[in-house]
Design a protein that fits this description.
Elements lengths: L2 E7 L13 H18 L4 H7 L2 E3 L2 E8 L8 E11 L3 E10 L2 E11 L1 E3 L7 E3 L4 H9 L1
Antiparallel strand pairs: 1-4, 2-7, 3-6, 4-5, 5-6, 7-8
């Protein structure tokens, strides 16, 4: 399975008054990590949208388990991978590490979405392209 790793330094604006990362900032980091993972695998989000006639790849579910907090100036490593594919959706797992300790386990479900063929004012899920599945499964 393809895994993308990136190091992120916690910035002042990521933190709350207690100097720990305000949890919504992590979800922004996870959203970036998904896009960066796709680019590292050779599929930019814009290319996927244009090539397959999509409107977007929205997140439809997300959650996280927080084990260890992070503060301003610290470095974390975010490891992202696709856990599974379904017809039009996929599950992403982000594991965040401080040094070698697991700090956060995060999960998101995303869906490929295009315009409905019978009513362009509505949206409809779109099938996952086989070449994307193959690339992420191959590693």
């Amino acid at each position: 399975m393809f895994v993308n790793r990136r190091d992120v330094q916690i910035q002042w604006g990521d933190c709350d008054p207690a100097n720990i990362v305000y949890y919504p900032r992590y979800f922004a980091m996870f959203d970036d990590s998904t896009s960066i993972m796709f680019e590292a695998a050779g599929f930019s989000k814009q290319d996927i949208i244009h090539k397959y006639g999509l409107v977007g790849i929205p997140m439809v579910d997300t959650r996280a388990k927080f084990h260890i907090p992070s503060t301003h100036g610290e470095w974390i490593r975010i490891e992202s991978r696709i856990e599974s594919f379904k017809r039009s959706s996929f599950e992403v797992v982000h594991n965040v590490f401080k040094a070698d300790a697991l700090a956060i386990e995060a999960f998101e479900t995303r869906v490929l979405v295009g315009k409905h063929p019978d009513d362009p004012t509505k949206l409809k899920s779109a099938p996952m392209p086989p070449e994307i599945i193959e690339r992420f499964m191959r590693g």
